[in-house]
Amino acid sequence: MPRAVHAFFLFAAATLNASFGIELVYAQSSSAQGAANDVRAACAQDVQKLCANVPSGGGRILTCLKQHQDQVSDGCKQAVAKAMGQANGGAGTAPATSAPPADAPPSTNTAPDAAPPAAPKNSQPMTTAKSNSSQHYFLMKQVQLIEQAAGQGRPAFDLMIPKDWQFKGWVNVGVAEGGCFADWFSVVGDAKSADGSIELQMIPKYTWQYMDDPAGQREMQQKNAFDAKYKIKPCPVRAPIKAEEFLRRDLIEKYRKGKMVVSVESFPELDQLVRYRIGLPPSGGDVNGIHTEAARARLSYDDDKGQPVEEWVTAEIIVRKIPMGARGAAYDWHAVNVMWFRTPKGQLDANERLFKLIASTIRPEPEWQKFSNGVIADLYKKKREEAEKQQDIIREFQNKVADTINGVVAYQQSGSMQSAYGTSQLIREVQTFRDPTTGSTFELSNKYDNAWRDPNGQYYVMSDEANFNPNGKLDGNWTQLQLVRPQP
User: Fold this and answer.
1) What is the secondary structure of 261-285 as a DSSP string?
2) N or C: which end of the chain has fewer CB within 10 A?
3) 404 and 255 share one domain
4) What gap in Å lies between CA 437 and CA 414, rounded to an integer?
5) Containing structural domain, residue 449
């Protein structure tokens, strides 16, 4: 795509609709705001004509405009060109990457007020890399969370972070706050920029169980009290709550008590990603009793060094409603994808694209997921056998939880739902690239149509600049990857 045309779509994406803000961020002075309004007016008919049936959000309208670039009206193109000429001499301001402005005060705060669980002695060591940054690309590296149970050193999760960032992560076993078997493996991760000013943290998920039937609730509480006598951690009994309420009552109250909450809002992009991973359609409400929703809270406060910071706090709630006949229903529910993303004050919006880029790459290793699911299923099987000696209500509930744990029901139905995911990569904000030298394929962010890979497959360059070439500009020998377009 020629640079001028590419710049047109980037600017249009930043001005036509608020959802395009993750594509490119611009300073909104009064003159720039007026230019943005002109672009919206000039391009509204193009969006209505070419992309009327495309839902906003996630860059979908931008993708539609790219696909119809030859049909966009001259009036729209002229309005964009005029607006670009008024903004920074014709060039937009790209979002910040890992480094803050030179005059920004450094932040040395590296953890929430209440720190996540401590790493075991054999956790994966901190990794560092030489810093390379640009307004037009992210240089990323792949890192792993290693599960060290029984000395296996088994890779558990993969994610990609900027090359010059530091990372540490581990998997705790059997040390969750609650005694629900679904929390047997607790995943913890921390990625931060070289100067420590920008940080993303992953903290363990939370699980609860509940019954509508008062008699069932009493039996669950009595069983927990009995287990506590023998120092067995109980599985907490608690009615499901909304994702936004979980952020306020649990995360913010525990980790950021007294800090200013700027906003709490739904987070549909995270919800779509989680629904895909557990085999549910991207929308359409509850399926087979499984309900999902995601939210994020924006906070602003001074860290423990007195530096002003901002951050996003995110969580996804997954509730499995289990019919219990005349007794109503029981609920096995979880808070997953619990993350914190912190930046110096004034840089959170500029780094939102980076946050979503990293979050979209977090995924479990298939072999570890199979292993961990097997361990948890065995634990529930033993619990079910033990429950044979207990009251009918508890036994029935344990039987059904054992059948649904870790999304078994959702995965069983996922095969019949794959047709609903013809746009699954669009939902997950990724696209496929091929290495022409090996034929290997990779899923990378769809925010960039240009990607390169180093010979060892350790680092990737992703750029929005069609003519950019890292060879000669960055250390190493880079192979350009081929973008694989989906078949119509």
Assistant:
1) EEEEEE-HHHHHHHHHHTT--SSSS
2) C
3) yes
4) 34
5) 429-484
pTM: 0.61
Q: 309, 308, 334: which is closest to 319 by C-alpha?
A: 334
174 with 239, same domain: the answer is yes
Query: Would 220 be classed as within a structural domain?
Result: yes
What's the length of the chain?
488
The answer on 463 and 417 residing in a single domain is no
Give percent of the chain above pLDDT 70: 65
For residues 151 and 166, what is the distance between their CA atoms, to the nearest angstrom?
A: 24
Q: Is 242 within a domain?
A: yes
476 in the same domain as 407 = no
Q: Assess contact for 419 and 349: CB atoms under 8 A.
A: no
Closest CA to 30 of 94, 101, 79, 86: 86
What H or E segment, with its residue span, contains residue 483? strand 482-484
Query: Is the distance from CB of 381 to CB of 181 less than 8 angstroms?
Result: no
Token reading at 6:
């590419």
Beta bridge partners of 186: 172
pLDDT digits (tens, 9 = 90+) for 131-153: 333 456 888 998 988 887 655 67
Over residues 380-426, the pLDDT tens digits come to 777 666 655 555 666 666 666 666 655 544 444 444 344 333 345 55
Q: Are residues 84 and 176 in the same domain?
A: no
If asked whether residues 170 and 192 sit together in one domain, one would say: yes
Strand-by-strand arrangement of the 482-484 sheet: 441-445, 430-434, 482-484
The encoded tokens of residue 317 equal 């709630």
Q: Which of 421, 442, 460 is the last residue of a domain?
A: 421
Phi-psi bin for 88: left (phi > 0), alpha (psi -120 to 50), beta?
left
Between CA 416 and CA 384 the distance in angstroms is 30
